[in-house]
Design brief:
The structure holds two protein chains of two kinds. Chain A is mostly helical. Among the domains of chain A are: about 170 residues, no CATH class; about 170 residues, Cytochrome Bc1 Complex, Chain D, domain 2. Chain A has 27 helices and four strands. In chain A, strands 1-4 form a two-stranded antiparallel ribbon. A two-stranded antiparallel sheet of chain A has the order 2-3. The longest helix of chain A has about 35 residues.
């Protein structure tokens, strides 16, 4: 039979590899910067654009979508061609995908520091970029599916299933979580509100971890680990069970991010149950990876690539055991809102994603350049420095998480909070924050050594843009063989049916989770005293979002005595019905703000924003002096009101035209109150709006709503 | 308050049960399928990544 000759495209793989390294180092550098800002706030150089609350999302987006994202595409474009014995369907689509993705990253790097954000974690980018992401993602999907269609290998290897699941699920998550109505070019409101918005966001957020940081990387593990160890995967049967169980269960677990929140109890329990079930497939996958090295463990001592991969898979096992544990309500009660979560994600990020990426890069780059690795010794150095970096990062973070969690909950024998001042619990953590940044610095140093080593490797070889290969066309194989295929083999040879089943598996979880909430929407106990925000408060809320206050402050008082003592009445679902988007936050570097309204005088907020240390000595909050000088843009008020009306917020008809009158009236009241405290500020400054919003927070159910809508 | 929310949705308690049943039946089905897989086929699939040097003959498996 006649073989077909064709060429694998290595250029696209190289492009993504370079982008992976480049953005990886940038993302880690931003991470190091924010880690240092926690104990040295002045590192923001007094600019809004480098302030912690604005660039922390930049760090998370950079490492997830730029570093890991490019890493995914690098691995997919390399392995897909070889596993299917065909070149990618279209070089042009590949190029569009590559440059489109880099454009998205650059736009993120510009817009996030400027304060254009939706506030939804890992989905902060505003609507025009959301649309661009969807387009580029679909380009990737078309290129991948079309490549699968023109394959010369009848059956799809397990890695490809993970890629397919990644494509469909991320598309679904991204689209649903990005339902928003634009207000201006870079401002939109989520169509969901409050509890519902929180559930959709964490359904997305959790599954972004599942289907962006996990499934594609499991695909890479199933391809590159056998490659590096030069032996087949331990159990192909196990990989089938691993795949279906993982994608089926993962999608349900989102609500474990919202335990003890105002989310209905049944949804919380569902999240916990499925999270614990997740241990099984996750560990099945981990063991399958580790056991692939059976009989090759002696090589692990010698080969830095295998070292990276073994630590990566072990970190995956640790993180996927810890995750379900953190979903147990009693553990979550302690861990949530603390640095424990940060430690947990960095075991996954630095260990699993980071080290697997480096393992793949060290394997791949010498092959792309037809040479040997420049220096095995340097690669070993990278490994050990990086490994130490992980330890120095994780241990202090576990320490701070548990310390702070315990301090929040500690009562004196008399029944009072032992540490009633939140700041006390933060100052306790500073030495650990310093250690953590050293861990980050070590990890970054390792990455830079790795980049140097890989660049040297590339320089000593010569790039092979096209790799010759040959294989039988599929049609000829079909004619001769493969009769009576049934069961899973049938699915593996039929990508469209396979994709449909994948979609069904992930959609069931999504539907069961989301649909009841839509039902809940009409059933959320409405609280008669909860009123829409006044125009000034609405503008203030958008400043709160722009500055990223939700990065460090939650708006969710959990129903614990330790929280109601500290903050006041616990949060009710009905209080959030006008919150587009919700602002519950996920981390308390500062105290919860849901009941901050009326707690301090206006002047306190003014001074606190100008210089947090003037009101709270030792505070690690950065100052926000620009709020005092920036003029509030009220030209957007009518449009904002109209969009809110469209979303069902009951402003009276035609209110958009008189909203600014009310806004100025309320601003003047606050200005007057500040004046009595000896502070002279014009009424049209941003600080006034922010104060209005903060003073409103959580007051609806107190009965003393200071400035309700006229 | 949670109870009120719960009670207001008809038959809410059935949701988690349905979820679990759905998953479990899917899981059993997969296990059954996997056990019945042909050994030669499984070996061939496991070796796919190692077999991509470009001179793949194809067709040598017909299990």
């Amino acid at each position: 039979m006649e073989m077909e000759r064709f060429k694998y495209d290595n250029t696209i793989v190289r492009s993504f590899a370079i982008a992976t390294l480049f953005w990886g180092i940038i993302g880690m550098l931003v991470g190091l910067t924010i880690a240092i800002e926690l104990y040295y706030p002045a590192l923001n150089l007094k600019t809004p654009w480098l302030t912690f609350s604005r660039i922390r999302p930049l760090h998370t987006n950079a490492v997830i979508f730029a570093f890991v994202g490019n890493g995914i595409f690098m691995g997919v474009y390399y392995s897909l061609q070889r596993l299917l014995k065909t070149r990618m369907y279209s070089d042009l689509l590949g190029k569009l995908h590559f440059w489109g993705w880099q454009l998205i990253i650059v736009l993120a790097a510009i817009t996030l520091p400027l304060g254009y954000t939706t506030s939804k974690e890992y989905a902060e980018l505003e609507w025009p970029i959301d649309i661009l992401i969807a387009i580029v993602w679909v380009i990737f999907g078309i290129n991948m599916m079309a490549t699968i269609m023109k394959r010369r290998e009848k059956h799809m290897y397990v890695a490809i299933w993970f890629y397919i699941a990644t494509f469909f699920t991320v598309a679904m998550l991204h689209i649903v979580n990005s339902f928003e109505i634009p207000v201006t070019l870079f401002k939109s409101y989520s169509i969901f509100a409050g509890v519902q918005d929180a559930l959709v966001q964490w359904w997305y957020g959790h599954n972004a971890v599942a289907f962006f940081l996990t499934t594609p990387y499991l695909g890479l593990m199933y391809y590159f680990m056998p490659k590096a160890a030069n032996r087949p995967v331990y159990s192909y049967r196990l990989s089938i069970v691993h795949f279906w169980a993982l994608i089926f269960i993962y999608i349900w677990a989102g609500p474990h991010h919202l335990l003890y929140s105002a989310l209905p109890d049944w949804a919380q329990s569902l999240g916990t149950t499925f999270s614990i079930m997740l241990i099984a497939p996750s560990w099945g996958g981990m063991l399958n990876g580790l056991l692939t090295l059976r009989g090759a463990w002696d090589k692990v001592r010698e080969d830095p690539i295998l070292k990276f991969m073994v630590v990566a898979v072990t970190a995956y096992g640790m993180a996927t055991f810890e995750g379900p544990m953190l979903s147990v309500k009693s553990i979550n009660a302690l861990s949530h809102f603390t640095d424990w979560t940060i430690a947990h994600v960095h075991i996954g990020g630095l260990g699993w994603n980071g080290f697997l990426t480096f393992g793949v890069l060290y394997w791949l780059i010498p092959r792309l350049y037809g040479t040997q690795l420049y220096s095995k010794k340097l690669a070993n150095w990278h490994f050990w420095i990086g490994f130490l970096g992980i330890v120095f990062y994780a241990v202090p973070m576990y320490w701070t998480g548990i310390t702070q969690g315990l301090m929040w909950k500690q009562f004196t024998p008399e029944g009072n909070l032992q540490y009633p001042i939140f700041l006390e619990t933060v100052l306790q953590l500073i030495p650990m924050y310093i250690l953590r940044s050293i861990g980050g610095l070590l990890y970054l140093t390792g990455a830079i050594i790795g980049a140097y080593n890989l660049i040297k490797t590339a320089k000593q070889g010569s790039f092979i843009p096209e790799e010759e290969a040959q294989a039988l066309p599929l049609a000829k194989q079909e004619a001769h063989h493969y009769k009576n295929v049934y069961g899973h083999r049938f699915l593996e040879s039929r990508p469209v049916q396979f994709s449909i089943w994948v979609f069904i598996a992930v959609a069931i979880g999504g539907i069961v989770e989301i649909v009841p909430t839509l039902v809940v929407k009409s059933n959320i106990p409405t609280i008669a005293s909860v009123k829409p925000y006044t125009p000034l408060e609405l503008q203030g809320r958008d400043i709160y979002i722009r500055e990223g206050c939700n990065t460090c402050h939650s708006q969710l008082v959990r129903p614990f005595r330790s929280e109601t003592e500290r903050y006041g009445e616990y949060s009710k679902a009905g209080e959030y019905v006008y919150d587009h988007p919700f602002l519950w936050g996920s981390k308390r570097l500062g105290p919860d703000l849901h009941r901050v309204g009326g707690k301090y005088p206006d002047a306190w907020h003014y001074n606190h924003m100008k210089d947090p240390r003037s009101t709270s000595p030792g505070s690690i909050m950065p100052p926000y002096p620009w709020l005092i000088t920036n003029k509030l843009d009220i030209s957007t008020t009518p449009k904002k009101i109209r969009v809110m009306q469209k979303l069902g917020v009951p402003y009276p008809e035609g209110y958009d035209q008189k909203a600014n009158e009310d806004l100025m009236a309320q601003a003047k009241e606050i200005q007057a109150r500040l004046k009595t405290a000896g502070i002279d500020v014009e009424a049209d400054r941003e600080i006034i709006a922010l104060i209005a919003y903060l003073q409103r927070l959580g007051t609806d159910i107190k009965g003393g709503n200071t400035a309700s809508l006229k | 308050m949670f109870k009120e929310v719960l009670q207001s949705i008809e038959g809410i308690e059935i949701w988690p049960v349905i979820s679990l049943l759905l998953f479990f039946s899917a899981f059993l089905l997969i296990i059954w399928r996997v056990i019945r897989l042909d050994k030669k086929f499984v070996n061939k699939m496991g070796n796919l990544p190692l077999d991509d040097t470009g001179d793949h003959k194809g067709g040598e498996i017909n299990g």
